């Protein structure tokens, strides 16, 4: 019997078709699916166009701002400084000398003045330990000066401040009442620190340092204001001073004016040389 197949696309009835071979399967691939094309939202396109002309606009605005700033500052660059204020607790700095340092800068403007050079000129003055220079718009300058605080003499031609820094004022003769310190040039700070330690130890007991010397080999020599000379050696000088003070409090306080020299170089004692010919040794060596 034949098989009639109707073709739905043509509406016609086809002729007889033979049956396909046993086991054969005919597969018709599906037609490719066409995806809808996505279009960029209109607001994103507008954002890109905005960026294209926004940066040139910002550059134009910046240029106009700089141009306006230049024209506003130009008169200040030509306007001389009207006032220079010098501040600080000044006891030794000569104000006339400060005026001489400042005078060449008076014709400068606040914009063109070289603040670093002015500060360097001020620091070159003997008594100036620190200086700051500040612009105050539109035409004022403020200078703040810090003085050296003299604590002791260093040799015959310099003074030491409380940080152990040496400086050389013109008239050092008026500071003869300050303690005299000596030592290698490289040891200024150490000598000052040791002097301060000794003063803190001695003052509660009625002693003061009049002279302190550190010699080349590191040995220390001290003289009190009452004239007592102390030989401290090189090591453990603070402990040796504490030993002297303990013995001084117990045995020597009533006879200090008779003491000429104290030798503290012993490991566990000390020797006292009196102003009289006799010498008394005191220690724990028994």
UniProtKB/TrEMBL annotation:
> Looking at the record, which segments are called Disordered?
1-33
Top-level lineage group: Bacteria
Tell me what topology the record assigns in the membrane: Single-pass type II membrane protein
> Could you tell me which residue ranges the POTRA domain spans?
79-148
Q: Which UniProt keywords apply?
A: Cell cycle, Cell division, Cell inner membrane, Cell membrane, Membrane, Transmembrane, Transmembrane helix
Any Pfam family from its record, for instance, is: POTRA_1
Q: Which PROSITE patterns match?
A: POTRA
Protein name, UniProt field: Cell division protein FtsQ
Organism this protein belongs to: Halopseudomonas pertucinogena
């Amino acid at each position: 019997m034949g098989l009639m197949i109707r073709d739905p696309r043509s509406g016609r009835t086809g002729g007889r078709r033979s049956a396909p071979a046993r086991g054969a399967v005919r597969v018709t691939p599906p037609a490719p699916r066409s995806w809808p094309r996505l279009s960029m939202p209109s607001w994103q396109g507008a954002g890109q166009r905005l960026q294209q002309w926004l940066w040139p606009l910002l550059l134009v605005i910046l240029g106009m701002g700089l141009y306006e700033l230049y024209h506003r500052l130009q008169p200040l660059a030509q306007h001389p400084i009207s006032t220079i204020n010098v501040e600080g607790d000044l006891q030794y700095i000569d104000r006339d000398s400060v005026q001489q340092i400042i005078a060449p800068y008076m014709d400068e403007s606040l914009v063109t003045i070289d603040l670093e050079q002015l500060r360097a000129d001020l620091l070159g003055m003997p008594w100036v330990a620190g200086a700051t220079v500040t612009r105050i718009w539109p035409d004022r300058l403020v200078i703040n000066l810090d003085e050296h605080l003299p604590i002791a003499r260093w040799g015959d031609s310099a003074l030491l401040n409380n940080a152990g820094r040496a400086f050389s004022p013109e008239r050092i003769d008026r500071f003869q009442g300050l303690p005299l310190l000596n030592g290698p040039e490289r040891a200024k700070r150490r000598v000052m620190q040791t002097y301060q330690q000794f003063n803190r130890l001695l003052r509660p007991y009625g002693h003061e340092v009049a002279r302190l010397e550190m010699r080349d080999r590191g040995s220390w020599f001290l003289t009190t204001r009452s004239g007592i000379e102390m030989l401290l050696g090189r090591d453990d000088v603070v402990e040796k001073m504490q030993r002297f003070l303990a013995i001084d409090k117990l045995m020597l306080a009533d006879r200090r004016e008779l003491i000429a020299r104290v030798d503290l170089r012993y490991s566990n004692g000390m020797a006292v040389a009196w102003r009289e010919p006799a010498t008394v040794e005191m220690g724990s060596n028994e």
